[in-house]
Each structure stands twice: as structure tokens, then as C-alpha cells.
Write a structure and sequence with these properties.
By secondary structure, this protein is mainly beta. It contains two helices and twelve strands, in the order αβββαβββββββββ. Strand 6 and strand 7 form a beta hairpin.
């Protein structure tokens, strides 16, 4: 199991990193998100990322890529689905359908990756108030490497229902 020291985790996922997004402009949150700052070393993605998610799953030795990751928000399992995940870097979005578009990208130290997960307000647990402190935990088991990354961060009222795509460079 991998371990990330707390002092690195605090820089990796800053205090203001959590937010929700109104993707379709109807005034309701359609997704949750956070951003990560690369604080360790440049991260180069392989130039030969398969275009077909099934091929990628085969390389990972699984039938369903979603089985490699579990995500909980405030202790509630989100039933993770890679098809609901979007990663954004320098204004470009990558989902499973266009995963090969990320091939060859290098994220420099200090680069920010925005993680957005489709999770509409209608699916929130009863009584959940999005403004306030939340704990997000991601557990992974990929290529024999397992680990857990968890963070408690506060969602402030100015980070709720952000216009899509959110510009995390304006976060203070």
C-alpha cells in the first residue's frame, strides 16, 4: 500500500480544491470536482495510450476498468464509473471516449489537473449539504500497485455550482 505524507498531500490537494459544477446551466450541480497540483516531479503520460477502453482494460488485466478504483465521499460509496470521469489539463478535457488525446502529455511540477465526476445533486445522500467539510477517499489497485489517497477539504459557498469548465487558476 502506498503512503503519501500529509505535508505532500496538503500541497497535492490544496485546501480550496473541492467544488461542484453546473455543467448544463440549469442552476443545479451536475458534478463534483477537485484539482490536484503536481508537486513531486514531471508526469509524462505514455505516447501509446489505447483508443479503445476495452483494450486498456485488457492491458490492466480486468474486464471493467471501474473495478480498479473505489471512491467514497463522506463514507458513501459513489459506485465509481470511469465513463463519468473527466480529467482537464490546460483547458482540454479527457474522458474514456477520447482517452488517447492525453497520450504524450507531460504535466510539469506546479501543473494542475482538474478531476470532474458526474454526480448530480439528485444522487446526493439525504440531508447532505454540499457547503462544508467533506472527505473524499480514492482507493486504487492498478498493475499490482495499491494505495489510498484521502483528503478532508471544505467546499465554500463560492465553490458551488461553478460554470463549466471551472477555471481553478482563479481559486484563491
Amino acid at each position: 500500500m502506498s503512503y503519501i505524507p500529509k505535508y505532500i498531500l496538503k500541497r497535492l490537494i490544496p485546501a480550496n480544491a473541492f467544488f461542484t459544477v453546473d455543467k448544463n446551466g440549469d442552476g443545479k450541480a451536475d458534478a463534483i470536482g477537485f484539482y490536484i497540483v503536481n508537486v513531486i516531479s514531471p508526469l509524462a503520460l505514455p505516447a501509446d495510450i489505447p483508443k479503445d477502453p476495452k483494450e486498456l482494460a485488457k492491458l490492466a488485466g480486468v474486464d471493467d476498468l471501474s473495478s480498479l478504483i473505489t471512491v467514497t465521499l463522506d463514507g458513501v460509496d459513489l459506485k465509481f464509473d470511469f465513463n463519468k470521469l473527466e480529467l482537464r489539463y490546460e483547458g482540454k478535457g479527457v474522458r474514456m471516449a477520447n482517452l488517447a488525446d492525453a497520450a504524450g502529455i507531460t504535466i510539469p511540477v506546479g501543473g494542475k489537473v482538474v478531476v470532474i465526476y458526474d454526480y448530480p445533486e439528485s444522487e446526493y445522500p439525504p440531508g447532505m449539504n454540499i457547503v462544508g467539510e467533506h472527505e473524499l477517499v480514492v482507493k486504487y489497485n492498478i498493475a499490482g500497485q495499491s494505495g489510498e489517497i484521502g483528503a478532508k477539504r471544505e467546499v465554500t459557498s463560492d465553490r458551488v455550482k461553478l460554470k463549466y469548465p471551472p477555471d481553478v487558476n482563479t481559486f484563491k
